[in-house]
Known about the structure:
The chain is of the alpha/beta class. The protein has helices at 8-11, 15-36, 38-46, 68-77, 112-128, 147-159, 171-180, 190-202, 226-236, 349-356, 395-410, and strands at residues 92-95, 109-111, 136-139, 162-164, 185-188, 214-217, 239-246, 250-255, 263-265, 270-275, 288-295, 306-315, 327-328, 334-335, 340-342, 345-347, 362-373, 379-388, 415-419, 434-439. Strands 3, 4, 5, 6, 7, 8, 9, 10, 11, 12, 13 and 14 form a 12-stranded mixed beta sheet that branches. The protein has a 4-stranded mixed beta sheet with strand order 19-18-17-20.
Amino acid sequence: xxxxxxxxxxxxxxxxxxxxxxxxxxxxxxxxxxxxxxxxxxxxxxxxxxxxxxxxxxxxxxxxxxxxxxxxxxxxxxxxxxxxxxxxxxxxxxxxxxxxxxxxxxxxxxxxxxxxxxxxxxxxxxxxxxxxxxxxxxxxxxxxxxxxxxxxxxxxxxxxxxxxxxxxxxxxxxxxxxxxxxxxxxxxxxxxxxxxxxxxxxxxxxxxxxxxxxxxxxxxxxxxxxxxxxxxxxxxxxxxxxxxxxxxxxxxxxxxxxxxxxxxxxxxxxxxxxxxxxxxxxxxxxxxxxxxxxxxxxxxxxxxxxxxxxxxxxxxxxxxxxxxxxxxxxxxxxxxxxxxxxxxxxxxxxxxxxxxxxxxxxxxxxxxxxxxxxxxxxxxxxxxxxxxxxxxxxxxxxxxxxxxxxxxxxxxxxxxxxxxxxxxxxxxxxxxxxxxxxxx
Length: 440
């Protein structure tokens, strides 16, 4: 047994020692991509930087930021994997493209060593929220090309847990195994976790009578939203923990610990920055901006200063659990490309989510319809569409109450539409909450 820590030497390392380790790995990574990748060598030369210029961690700001659009362009011009695959083909193990929900998928590759590293640090963060060898893990993340399912499966194997590789299949099958296999841990997107909870309620199944004790939810923001966490915990009879990853960087490299005080990142393998969304200038700890990540140990397809588009607020103070690695307080606060600028206010879907899920009369589902002027692109109207859980509620009164709560939270008035029960689509994967339409 490993006690409270999977790797205590690393997880409790002093910040100065951790930063020395990061600098050593950063120098190694920058030099190898410069020497072995025409893609990176060209980018660095255009920025007027060589590996010799990286003398301290802050020097990373001299390197260009990398976007998904850059990767797509590269692999289009040099198909199928672009020139950012650095490890020799003999060391490649698996291909994991992005989901392609916002365009063509971006191909990333894991080497044999990458797979080992991903497995180990995924086991570390799962151990951190309390998973143990004796657990029965119902893995409701999608398997196959989507990265999270396999990474978690490998980690369960390393911990020694019993795995039900159910994937993102129907809620009916999920409930069957929750009842009959004695699953103690559920892994899924928060949207799917809420859907399962909704189905349990409809079937009049008491979640407290299930063996389930832990739920870990990722693939989209929301788990650390207080109202969403409360619904997950009450609806499934669990402690709910956030887990984070993205295909281009790694499937699962940050998660909450038992303190539920933010996502702990695996900083011995990933260097984190927070940049201003507009200027791309570095921000200080505690300031909200876009998370940018650099691989420190990835062999096959390393990313240098990858612009995740995810909005975070990082804290580098030691957590109550004793871990010293950086935390994203509140988890992923939103997506830079999901931000809605309306009447001078910045609106994130997670703000709407917190309001909607604070009303016991409303279901977990909601949708935001944004109408933009066809000529100028300026947002003309924002509408929040919600649904009641029962026809017994006065929808006109509820509409006024929700509109007022949204006005207080967003500092701007938005239209509200209240639909009958089960009007909005449910999903086993990632929910699409925002719809953009054009107006006259």
